[in-house]
Design brief:
Blueprint lengths: L2 E6 L1 H4 L9 E6 L12 E2 L2 H10 L2 H9 L1 E4 L6 H5 L8 H21 L4 H23 L9 H4 L8 H16 L7 H10 L2 H9 L3
Parallel strand pairs: 2-3
Antiparallel strand pairs: 1-2, 1-4
């Protein structure tokens, strides 16, 4: 197998906790078909290059934090790409994430799908909105899962509720067995002034 392997996320930042997983990026560089663990993120060189050229936030995440743990080339692939283009789509990204969050909150309110799944989607949207906003509101982009609490604008939900939604995400994506008070987390999420928080973020982005 000819590929580059990177770690990114909490492991690369030194923020590993008992609930952390290890984010692994694989960039296959050969023509042969290979199978990788399902939890690993596998992107072709062309896709990664397009992300760098268009200034996607994920490209900046990799550029600033990914650590190469194996490379089949003299110069690791990400290093060969240089600096990504300027990230200029924070507003559009936040709009898309707000739509995703709104749909998830409606599902939570109507109980029409898995509550665990929708709580996890809400967590992801809130986290990623804060990450996109950090480009403007902080001195440097923040890719921590705690990004909503690191912005200068108060997070509209408590750390307890946020952590509960995060554990719901882990349960739905990893199959982990977490003891989650889904009903109270859902109730608190629905009551939180999340839309006001997003509007305030938009006034800066």
């Amino acid at each position: 197998m000819i590929h580059d392997l990177y770690i990114f996320g909490s492991a690369a930042r030194g923020e590993v906790s008992p609930t952390s997983d290890i984010d692994v990026l694989v960039v296959p560089l050969g023509d042969e078909k290979s199978e990788y663990p399902a939890a690993w993120s596998v992107y072709s060189p062309a896709i990664i290059q397009s992300y760098f050229e268009s200034g996607r936030l994920f490209a900046w995440h990799l550029h600033l934090e990914a650590k190469c743990i194996h490379s089949a080339r003299q110069t690791p692939f990400l290093s060969s790409l240089g600096t990504p283009a300027q990230y200029s789509t924070a507003g559009e990204d936040i709009n898309d994430l707000e739509s995703m969050l709104g749909e998830s909150l409606r599902e939570i309110q109507n109980r029409t799908t898995s509550l665990i799944y929708e709580l996890g989607i809400a967590y992801t949207a809130i986290r990623d909105i804060a990450m996109a906003a950090s480009w403007v509101l902080l001195d440097k982009p923040c890719f921590s899962r705690d990004a909503p609490f690191l912005l200068p604008l108060p997070c509209p939900i408590s750390r307890k509720v946020y952590r509960g939604a995060m554990l719901a995400r882990h349960s739905s994506t990893r199959g982990s067995d977490n003891n989650i008070d889904t009903e109270n987390i859902a109730k608190d999420l629905l009551a939180a002034p999340i839309q006001s928080w997003i509007r305030e973020i938009r006034s800066f982005v």
